[in-house]
């Protein structure tokens, strides 16, 4: 359920500048003045986000579109925000598109492995997760917990409350942020009335499968090793996938458990697997993969790639895992129809020249059509 929030709690730095004649240049880069907070539902604490427009500030026409970009494992919300700003600037869409980047806070004494330079530390009253719990929808810590997926729902509701002219909100994530978003799609709440949600999933380390099968590369109909089908943007002619239940599931215990599959879903997610799969099929989703995110070479950040048994069943590298998942969708999650004039078919765009780098992938020309749908028409007004 979406909850309209009673009022934002602004970061102190912004409060000091709110009365200034000129607002801070939040459409240029992430700064402390552009880092604001709002109250999560039911007293679960606060959540901060970077924003290209300050709530309540007069900054031209109200935006009709928004991009909400999810940070990666280092919780580099500032870097992710700047990448989305650059993408909007290159696309000529800063005037009509709000850019926002939430931060899932972690207690200072537990954030050594997931702390990005320049990102503000948590404040008293902030909702807190661990370095990994925000990734899979787990509840925040404290007396009034809220799941990370529900917190993202609340952010969408808050953006619509602050900018009621919004018609389209694109949730975009890179790396661990993409993993979090891809997992959240089937468990998200319904969007506010009149708002269309879209998702852009870029270079996740692993994927959520809704069935117990996993990809097997084939060449001329015969199973082959992943290396036989190459590692670039396209598989050689004749390479494809078939999907089988692993012949010895016990050799990879829990390969189909959450967060790689939907066996024994956490009750806190609040939705059975079949319903989540059906909602995933209906969502508008685009996939991005960096062309060079396909090996153990420099630039692919292979040392941080999930190489657990369950992850390796999905493929050896991020690009191959994404290609396999698209083939899985086409076989097991029919979504290629058009409803209400909207094409729900899935596409995977391989971004030339990019490795595992949000500042390369999101601002690229190849990613533009996925991130920026056509400008929505203005909402009709009644005649006076």
Task: Explain the layout of strands and helices.
Elements: E1 8-9, H1 12-17, E2 35-39, E3 46-51, E4 65-70, H2 77-91, E5 97-103, H3 148-162, E6 168-174, H4 176-184, E7 196-202, E8 214-219, E9 222-223, E10 239-244, H5 273-282, E11 284-290, H6 309-312, H7 318-332, E12 338-339, E13 342-343, E14 348-351, H8 358-361, H9 368-371
Parallel strand pairs: 4-5, 4-6, 6-7, 7-11, 11-14
Antiparallel strand pairs: 1-2, 2-3, 3-5, 8-9, 8-10, 12-13
Task: Report on this structure.
This protein has 384 residues and is of the alpha/beta class. It has a domain at 8-203 and 356-371: Rossmann fold (3-Layer(aba) Sandwich). Helix content is 21%, strand content 18%. The protein contains 9 helices and 14 strands. The chain has helices spanning 12-17, 77-91, 148-162, 176-184, 273-282, 309-312, 318-332, 358-361, 368-371, and strands spanning 8-9, 35-39, 46-51, 65-70, 97-103, 168-174, 196-202, 214-219, 222-223, 239-244, 284-290, 338-339, 342-343, 348-351. A 9-stranded mixed beta sheet has the order 1-2-3-5-4-6-7-11-14, sandwiched between helices. A hairpin with a 2-residue loop joins strand 12 (338-339) and strand 13 (342-343). The longest helix is centred in the N-terminal third of the chain and has 15 residues, at 77-91. It is globular and about 65 Å long. Residues 1-21 and 337-343 have low confidence and may be disordered.
- Cα shape: globular
Order of strands in the sheet with most strands: 1-2-3-5-4-6-7-11-14
CATH architect. name of the domain at 8-203 and 356-371: 3-Layer(aba) Sandwich
Total number of helical segments? Answer: 9
Q: Give the integer mean of the pLDDT values.
A: 89
CATH fold field value of the domain at 8-203 and 356-371 = Rossmann fold
**How would you classify the helix and strand content by structural class?**
alpha/beta
- Gyration radius, to the nearest Å? 21 Å
Q: How large a portion of the residues is in β-strands, by DSSP E? A: 15-25%
Distance between the termini: 35 Å
